[in-house]
Amino acid sequence: MSNTAFGTANEDNANLSKSDSKAVRRRSLALLGSLIRPVRLRFWLTIATVVLSQAARVAGPALIAFGIDHALPALRAGNSLPLVLAGVAYLIAALAAAGLTALYVTSTAALSQAMLLDLRLWVFRHTQRLSLEFHEKYTSGRIIARQTSDLEALRELLDSGVSSLASGLLFMLFTAVTVFALDWRSGLVVLAAAVPMFFLARWYQKHSQMAFRQSRVVSARLIVHFIETMTGIRAVKAFRKERENAGRYGELAEDYRRATVRSINLNGVFQPGLVLIGNVCVAAVLLFGGFRVLTGDLAVGVLLALMLSTKRFFQPVDQMAMFYNSFQSAQAALEKVSGLLEEVPTVRPPRNAVELRDARGAVEFRNVEFRYGTGPLIIPTLNLAIPAGQTVALVGQTGAGKSTLAKLIARFYDVSAGSVMLDGVDVRQLATADLRRNIVMVTQEAFLFSGSVADNIALGRPEAPREEIEAAAKAVGAHEFIMELPEGYDTDVNKRGGRVSAGQRQLISFARAFLARPAVLILDEATSSLDIPSERLVQSGLAGLLRGTDGTGPAADSPAADGTSRRTARTALIIAHRLSTVETADRVLVVHDGQVVEDGTPDELIGGNGRFARLHSAWKDSLV
Amino acid sequence: MAKQSSFFRSVSRLYPHVKPVLPRLFLGLLSALLASVVALAIPQVLRGLINDSLGPGATVEAVWGSAGLILALGVAEAVLVALRRTFVINPATTVETRMRVSLYGHLQDLPVSFHDRWGSGQLLSRAMTDLNFIRRWMAFGAIMLVVTTLTVVIGVIVMFTMSWQLALIFLAAAGPVMVYGFRFRTRFSKVARRSQDQAGDLATTVEESVHGIRVLKAFGRSREALETFNGQAEELRQTEIAKARHQAVFSMVVTLLPELALGAGLVTGIMLAASGQLSIGSLVAFFATAAVIAAPVEFSGMLLAMALTAKTALDRHFEVMDSQNTITGPADPRRPADVKGALSFNNVTFAFDDAPDKPVLEDVRLDICPGETMALVGITGSGKSALLQLVPRLYDVTAGSIELDGVDLREFSVEELRTLVAVAFEDTTLFSSSVRDNVLLGVVSEDTDTREKILAEALDTAQAHFAYSLPEGLDTLIGEEGLSLSGGQRQRLALARAIAAAPAVLVLDDPLSALDVNTEELVENRLREVLAGTTTLIVAHRPSTVALADRVALLEDGHIAAVGTHAELLAGNGHYRHVIASLETEPRDLDSELSALDDAEEVSR
Ligand SMILES: Nc1ncnc2c1ncn2[C@@H]1O[C@H](COP(=O)(O)OP(=O)(O)OP(=O)(O)O)[C@@H](O)[C@H]1O
Ligand SMILES: Nc1ncnc2c1ncn2[C@@H]1O[C@H](COP(=O)(O)OP(=O)(O)OP(=O)(O)O)[C@@H](O)[C@H]1O
Ligand SMILES: [Mg+2]
Ligand SMILES: [Mg+2]
After folding, report:
1. Which of A207, A419, B61, B545 is the most exposed place for a label (fewest CB within 10 A)?
2. How many Cα neighbours within 13 Å face the side chain of A189?
């Protein structure tokens, strides 16, 4: 791990140092290898079909030769059997060639699609696993670039490369044998051509590697910019950023073009270079053979055969160049993909998880310190205990660290020091499933996925039946507006929930959390865009949920609430700027610069003369 | 045949793009043709040379001469191959880049309603994968298709000169191949299109899964997300395999039929030769030619598939390019002589594209005086944001009109209008650049000092002083590629951005929702000064925000139900009290509230 190109670090750099270059190349090849391994049988079968179909194809001309050389004289002599034989054999060869061709076309596709699917899922799973810390700097655009244009490069290699390589190599092998059989001295001349070819290939490899890397880097940049523009299109338009964007995109597109042209031009030297070497070699064999014909060492017929074979020997070189080209391209792409796969999530599930199916919901911060990455300390030493069932309101200035505290409980990030405990168990000791079942957070941004309203709510608990989804929506007061949508619960909310208003988005996210019924519920300004009546509805729904007396029909028998001991109350952490929410809490924490500066019941704090009292009176004033 | 013209119609749409580079493409084609001619000629020349010049008693010079000739031909082949690339690559990539840039430009132009419908993955796959493919097809596929077709045609003609009977047999195979080719074309195009669309959807899913990663993590739903993705990826795989199967069958037909014809030709030819109707020389020459065109014929399956894929890619490209931008300025835009900022909504009706029969706003009438601050109040989903977005023409009114200083918004040039109007959206979008660039986004002035002053002013008004203490101060990179900020910090920057633009009309969509009470108060105090001379339309959910406004408009059921000061509405409008008043010190009297609601139907004019 000592090299600087580990993971996605240095990803945007195309000019790697020698050792880095070697390292990324190795990991790219390793990735290719591990993709082939599960499908190796199919891989070899595909190659076998290619070879066989090639053989069937070669049989055709041989049969024609047989027909002209043998069947024709035989027919003249009155024997039609050889002709029939030749005809039937030709028929069989044609059928075999056609069948095998079809087979290898489908087989290649099956092979390449299996590998692509494998890699797609692998990348997807891995990006889901990576922590927020990673996502915050990597951007969605890059991940999309990895999943689309990089995979496309691999696909090109798999679709065309393998078969041409296999058949080409085999073809060359056979012709080489022929050449050697005819005249080993000329064979040596042909072999000698491998030396300049090797150097040419070396040269090409070195330069094209850089070119393709460059091309990957630039195309990712292009994609990042594209995605950013399209997701922020409203702001782009409102602030007339179009021209600036077009300029930037034009530059990037031109960079991309230049990178592409550079790689194609390299191939444009490589491929004709190989052809040239081949042709020069043919001329050399002719020269060499010609003199020996003069001295009588070589028969003219042999020379002719030799020349034709030599010429044929170099025919697949074209294809090989193409293969090498796509190989280099795919390799550069896999370097990036493997880098992404190499990233280790900083928030990892534990090796030996402590089981905690149904937590009571006691949360504790013990000597917690936290900073984002290597940034400044956001939370300096925090000790805090929230007993199970308590409703805690978290207030404080913007940027005070409220969301950060909440995200630590939900283990979006791991603490830099100390520990966060749930029921006395460090959250780092909990299996992901247990953690997520017990702690659910409604984030500040109400994100909806494209898909129906019901699907979006069901994200809270995918196995929930429709009645429970509707009950959750009713509980937060979202049912009415959902029913007014054209297709009710089945209405597609469009990308990012663009089909519904901001407040409606918050209601839907709220219903999600409602459906999940966790032991600890964290609400990060979950009602900030709501009007006051809706907020009130949400609050009463929330109060019901938190007391365990929501009475929303069948949902009340959720796993956490069933059995003999009906749960008493859930723990809730509510971040809100509107203090109406806060008044209903059991306890208020005032956060300032990452520290809890006041702690008490709402009444106590309002009665005092601290920050909260001031805040509260300011808020009261603001209401009229 | 209608279908066939559609292939040419699709491809012909490339023509305007390709026109300037046509000569070079043609030269590329010529080089490719010559290269294949030379490649074919070399064996013939070799045979001729060896048989004629290098026979017994040949001279040293003859050997040198022959080798020289072969060398020259070989060099020529290599040079022609290289030439083909040089001729074609630059034009093809230039066309590709130009199309890519114009697609992007067009996408930026297209109205928001278009983007509501289209996932960014779909658009991305058009901009990257499709155009890459089109480029490769132009540089390789199309040229090879022409070369191959020519080779086959010439080959068949040559075959006719050798033996018309055999050539006819060979040609007989062409009939079924062509018929099958038509069927293949329709089927394959359909599948190719499906696979491209599915790939686009897959990219959209990836994008969503990354943007929504917090939600997925918060609920621990990565597995479900993976399953959805798996389902889609699996569908794509199936489509790709179906595509390959079509291609396989076509390759089979295209290999089999000519081969069968040749087999029949072999038998017939030998019988003809045996009966003396055909010379052995012609027979040999016939099959030699057949061997030459066998490879191109087989190749044609791949080339045809490539052409069809390029066609569907082109269709997808032009599908977007053909979408009309409905929000454009007139040819001769007007603007008021003096922009004061009087904004009036005249009987505005607005319905979203996907729900045309359910207008969100109906017959909205509202006048905002220059310099006035008007708060817009209404319950969730009442259409406040929709109304606001009409002002910078992110959407256009369905009926009625909005006028700025007496000029219909649609008579302004769009760019001008958006300079006059600045917006802060309810969900903040910050771009990946420095704090400075983000805040100064809408500022027209080029002067550095002025800009710095505006920046400082705007940050101060929005209480965004935290920006100075970021790691690199105002040059800190934020946005998706930069530092993440807290919700309130983002919102304040977005507010600062709107203020910095110093517009005639300021449109603020619930701009203080993520701020705590203290900060809110500070912002409001400063904002009040700034807003004094600016016409402002501000969505408010809280009384504190309403306090900023001179008057309040209440939006109810798509109408402006009442306009007045906060106190007036509070006193006279039950619905208003219902929406905005959170203090319920005295018990509510619902009945009188409801009757008050009816009284308040006095619509402003
Ligand atoms: N992902 C992040 N990476 C780096 N710094 C961050 C990140 N998220 C927040 N911060 C910083 O940490 C500090 C606390 O942020 P946090 O989001 O916890 O504030 P908050 O109290 O929730 O504020 P708000 O009320 O505005 O949402 C802020 O200074 C913010 O800029
Ligand atoms: N793209 C769209 N297509 C169809 N209907 C939409 C679209 N966007 C919003 N709507 C609907 O139009 C109505 C008004 O939405 P709008 O966003 O204007 O509400 P709002 O008043 O701003 O609400 P909020 O206070 O929650 O932000 C809502 O009922 C919403 O469901
Ligand atoms: Mg926050
Ligand atoms: Mg809104």
Report:
1. B61
2. 23
| Ligand 1 close to Cβ of residue A372 (< 6 A) | yes
**How far does the CA of residue B400 sit from the closest CA of chain A (Å)?**
22
**Other residues' Cβ atoms within 10 Å of the Cβ of residue B362:** 18
Which residues, including other chains, have CB under 8 Å from residue A111's CB and lie 6 or more apart?
A: A39, A42, A43, A46, A158, A162
Residue A554: Cβ within 10 Å count = 11
Residue in B closest to A111 by C-alpha? B241
> Which residue of chain A has the CA closest to B199?
A148
Interface A-B: count of C-beta contacts within 8 A:
515
The domain segmentation of chain B, as residue ranges, is 19-91, 110-321, 343-572, 576-605
Measured distance CA(A525)–CA(A523) in Å, rounded: 6
Backbone angles phi, psi at A538, to 5 degrees: -60, -40
DSSP letters, A372-429, are STTS-EEEEEEEEEE-TT-EEEEEE-TTSSHHHHHHHHTTSS--SEEEEEETTEEGGG
Q: What is the CA radius of gyration of chain B?
A: 36
* pLDDT tens-digit readout, A398-428: 888 999 999 999 999 999 999 999 998 999 9
CB contact under 8 A, A253 and B542: no
Domain covering B110-321 assigned CATH 2.60.120.810 in the classification: no
Q: Compute mean pLDDT per 10 residues along chain B, 605 residues long, and list them.
A: 62 88 90 84 77 72 83 90 89 92 94 89 92 91 88 84 84 84 88 93 91 89 91 95 92 87 86 83 80 79 90 92 89 85 91 88 91 90 91 92 90 90 88 90 87 91 90 87 84 91 90 86 87 88 85 90 88 85 47 42 39
Partner residue facing B89 (CB), from A68, A261, A441: A261
For chain A, domain boundaries: 18-217+254-342, 363-622
CA distance A272 to A293: 31
Round to whole Å and give the CA distance between A224 and A248.
12
What class, spelled out in words, does domain A363-622 have in CATH? alpha beta
ipTM: 0.90
CA distance B13 to chain A (A): 22
Residues A149-204 have pLDDT tens digits of 899 999 988 887 677 787 788 888 888 888 888 888 888 888 888 899 999 999 99
Q: Which residues pair with A426 in a beta bridge?
A: A421
Whether A271 sits inside 8 A of B81 (CB atoms) is yes
CATH class entry, domain A18-217+254-342: mainly alpha
Question: HSE (CB half, 13 Å, CA atoms) of B35?
Answer: 25
